[in-house]
Amino acid sequence: MSLFSELLNVLFPRTIDGLKQGVGAIRTAHTERQDRFVIDAIGSACCLIMAEAVPGEISLESIDGRIRNAQNYDPNEAHRCGIPDVNDEQRRAKIRAMLHRMSRSGKLRYHPVDKWSVR
Predict the structure, then answer these.
(1) Contact 116, 100 (CB under 8 A)
(2) In the chain, fewer beta carbons within 10 Å around the N or the C end?
(3) What is the pLDDT of residue 92?
(4) What does the pLDDT look like over 79-101, one tens digit per residue?
(5) What global pTM score does this model have?
(6) Domain range for 76
């Protein structure tokens, strides 16, 4: 830690803690909004049963396509949620990372290789 940040922490400990909590709350809200957008884009369980070879499992390619369709329908909400741009070269990797994060938080279930299901 720098001398300046140590000095601020000594002089204003409550302010620093409050700022940390505020930033954490903003990140949590943003993540929740992003998760809702992705789950809405994936669709309900009844759609998954009819659309995929293994009932309930959906491939990364299908999820990417569904997110792309949702982005075309509501681009402003997709941007606010932090969904990668359609022309982003790292889009597939970023979506995969979001899906793995959602699996770790219990919102999706991961099935090797690159398939997920909604819990």
Answers:
(1) no
(2) N
(3) 93
(4) 888 899 999 999 999 999 999 99
(5) 0.69
(6) 3-118
Q: What is the pLDDT of residue 112?
A: 87
Q: How far apart are CA 95 and CA 73, in angstroms?
A: 18
Q: Give 91's contacts (C-beta < 8 A, 6+ positions apart).
A: 64, 84, 85
Three-state DSSP string of the chain: CCHHHHHHHHHCHHHHHHHHHHHHHHHHHHHHHHHHHHHHHHCCHHHHHHHCCCCCCEEHHHHHHHHHHHHHHCHHHHHHHCCCCCCCCCHHHHHHHHHHHHHHCCCEEEECCCEEEEC
Largest CA distance in the chain: 61
Q: What is the number of structural domains in the chain?
A: 1
48: which 2 tokens? Answer: 């998954």
The sheet that has 108-111: what strands, in order across it?
Answer: 58-59, 115-118, 108-111
Q: Which residue type is seen at 21? A: Q
